[in-house]
Amino acid sequence: MNCGKIIVHGSAGDDLGYGMRGGEIYIRGNVETHQIGAEVGITEPSDAEWSDIEKYVVNFCKVFHLEKNHVKLLKREKFWRLSARSKRPYGRLYAY
Fold it and tell me: How many CB atoms lie within 10 A of CB 33?
C-alpha cells in the first residue's frame, strides 16, 4: 500500500500491511502482532482519525441501506490503526 485508507470490518487474516510504505489501514476487531509485518506500526486511532472512520462507515451504511447498523459498527474500542513505520521499509536491503 502506497497511500489511501482502508477500513476492514472483521478478520483481516495474516500478513497485514507487508510492504506498506504509506496510507492507513483501520481494522475493526482484534489484531495480534504476529499478523502484521515488521514495517507496520499499530496504534489506536486519534480523535481526528476517528472522525474519518465514522464518516466512511456512516456513508457505507447509507449506500448499502444498513443505517441501523452503523452504531454497532462504530464501537470505538474495537478499531486499530496500522501505518507504515518508514517510507522505505526495505531501503537497507537494496542500498548500493
Answer: 8
Q: Which amino acid is at 50?
A: W
- Residue 66 CA from chain centroid, whole number: 21
CB atoms within 10 A of CB 90: 11
Q: 33: which 3 cell numbers?
A: 502482532
Convert the pLDDT of each residue in 17-76 to its tens digit.
Answer: 777 778 888 888 888 888 887 788 889 999 999 888 888 888 888 888 887 766 666 766
- Which triple of cell numbers denotes residue 11? 478478520
Judged on CB neighbours under 10 Å (0-12, 13-18, 19+), 82 is buried
Which contacts of 60-63 are long-range, i.e. CB under 8 A and separated by 24 or more positions? 60/7
Its pTM stands at: 0.74
